[in-house]
Automatic annotation (TrEMBL):
Keywords from the named record: FAD, Flavoprotein, Oxidoreductase
A Pfam family matched in the record: Acyl-CoA_dh_N
Protein name from the UniProt record: Acyl-CoA dehydrogenase family protein
Residue stretches making up the Acyl-CoA dehydrogenase/oxidase C-terminal domain: 261-406
Co-factor requirement: FAD
Stated family: Belongs to the acyl-CoA dehydrogenase family.
Keyword hit for Nucleotidyltransferase: no
Self-association and partners: Homodimer.
Domain Acyl-CoA dehydrogenase/oxidase N-terminal: 35-148
InterPro entries: Acyl-CoA_dehydrogenase (IPR050741), Acyl-CoA_Oxase/DH_mid-dom (IPR006091), Acyl-CoA_Oxase/DH_mid-dom_sf (IPR046373), AcylCo_DH-like_C (IPR036250), AcylCo_DH/oxidase_C (IPR009075), AcylCoA_DH/ox_N (IPR013786), AcylCoA_DH/ox_N_sf (IPR037069), AcylCoA_DH/oxidase_NM_dom_sf (IPR009100)
Organism this protein belongs to: Streptomyces siderophoricus
Domain Acyl-CoA oxidase/dehydrogenase middle: 152-238
Length: 414
């Protein structure tokens, strides 16, 4: 883990650390609704001034991290910034995706921002709100939204391609009393080591598509955390074993055999949320790079005067500006209930590449300091590299988008 980052804005005359988080680099933000502009800046300030300084503790995990996260969550509630996109009836503020998108970038500038501000459970709350049984909704939804219950999602498995869920080996067997018993392993599950509930995809029949989702308490007999799986040296992902876990009938999420459809809904929203947050992280890397270029002076002058540094700045800015319209086009289509599969695929690949490019350029301008513990850049670069695999590798989205586009030309002759 790296130590608390020194905010470089504190060291550059004329750019105070309280400067707005957005707009300094000319990122070409889409027009924010006037009634959201002040809220967006409050979110950005909360992440910049409270969440980012706490990142070293939050990254380390354990009891200290849990206590720090609870403190930040209480502060977010007191500041009126809690659970912005979650339903009002569950204690959230009910912002639709088209409006929340303008705030998600600011939240996502820190990987811990969504959890600190209470928006991290959005995917689970949306999925369970649409598909869970009434008893499960009554027992769990409000507590998940309040941050009292921690939940994660388990789909991928060791030795099974994550892009081919038809090969899922985890099984759920029905009992005579309506219960289900689960056997199998899952891995690369975010937050499983500290979760209270996990939604598990399991096979419920011999047909490749006969897959179902189950809500499993991690306190149930037969649940075991196998190991933590460091990603490029940092933890947070886990492997779990389900050894004969029995859950009641009402823990089936949706109808039997509908897991792929429900997972598709979840993934489409999840990919867009990731893209928005990656934009925020890319902007953070860009800011760090530009401040470094202006403040770092060699015997021949500041780094900002070097053409190769100017090239890195230009290319990173170009990547951010050309990615943003793709992301917001996908947001608009998804929010309108339209087919957004092409737009989501384009946005996901572009945003992953953009984040890795911006973080890499910032590291290059920092030199050895960009590899060390005194900036957020190693974490941003790590996320950029992982982004090209998360929620489906680039190759999956490239092939899927290309096939859909080419099908439109089936009856066109040259």
């Amino acid at each position: 883990m790296w130590r608390k980052a020194v905010d470089p804005l504190d060291r550059v005359q004329g750019i105070p650390s309280a400067a707005p988080a957005f707009g300094r680099g000319g990122f070409g933000l889409p027009e924010c609704p006037p009634d959201l502009a002040e809220l967006r800046e409050r979110v950005a300030a909360f992440v910049r001034e409270r969440v980012m300084p706490a990142e070293p503790v939050l990254d380390a995990g354990g009891p200290a991290a849990r206590a720090e996260l609870r403190r930040l969550q209480e502060e977010a509630k007191e500041a009126g910034l809690w659970a912005l996109p979650l339903p009002v009836e569950l204690g959230g503020q009910g912002l639709p995706l088209s409006r929340y998108a303008h705030l998600a970038e600011a939240e996502g500038a820190s990987d811990h921002g969504p959890a600190a501000l209470g928006s991290a459970p959005l995917l689970d709350v949306s999925m369970l709100g649409r598909h869970a049984t009434a008893p499960v909704q009554e027992r769990c939804l409000r507590r998940i939204a309040a941050g009292e219950l921690r939940i994660c999602y388990a789909m991928t498995e060791p030795d099974t391609p994550g892009t081919d869920p038809a090969l899922t080996a985890t099984r759920a067997e029905p009992g005579a009393d309506g219960t289900w018993t689960l056997h199998g392993r899952k891995w690369f599950i975010t937050g499983a080591g500290e979760a209270d509930l996990v939604t598990v995809m399991a096979r419920t029949g011999d047909d490749p598509s006969d897959l179902s989702l189950f809500l499993v308490p991690t306190s149930a007999p037969g649940f075991r955390v196998v190991r933590e799986l460091p990603v490029l040296g940092v933890g947070g992902q886990w492997e779990i074993e389900l050894d004969g876990i029995t859950v009641p009938a009402d823990h089936l999420v949706g109808e039997r055999g509908t897991a792929l459809r429900i997972a598709g809904e979840r993934l489409r929203l999840g990919r867009i949320l990731r893209c928005l947050r990656w934009l925020g992280q890319a902007e953070r890397a860009f800011d760090l790079m530009c401040v470094r270029a202006r403040s770092r002076t060699q015997s021949s002058g500041p780094l900002a005067d070097r053409q190769l540094v100017q090239q890195l700045v230009f290319d990173a800015l170009l990547a951010i500006r050309t990615t943003r319209p793709l992301v917001y086009e996908a947001v608009a289509r998804l929010d309108a209930g339209e087919d957004a599969r092409v737009e989501t695929g384009l946005a996901k690949v572009a945003a992953a590449r953009m984040l890795q490019q911006a973080a890499d350029a910032a590291i290059q301008v920092h030199g050895a300091a960009g590899l060390g513990p005194d900036t957020a850049l190693p974490g941003l670069f790590r996320m950029g590299r992982a982004a090209r695999l998360l929620d489906g590798p680039d190759e999956l989205h490239i092939a899927s988008v290309a096939r859909r586009v080419l099908r439109a030309y089936d009856n066109v002759t040259s």
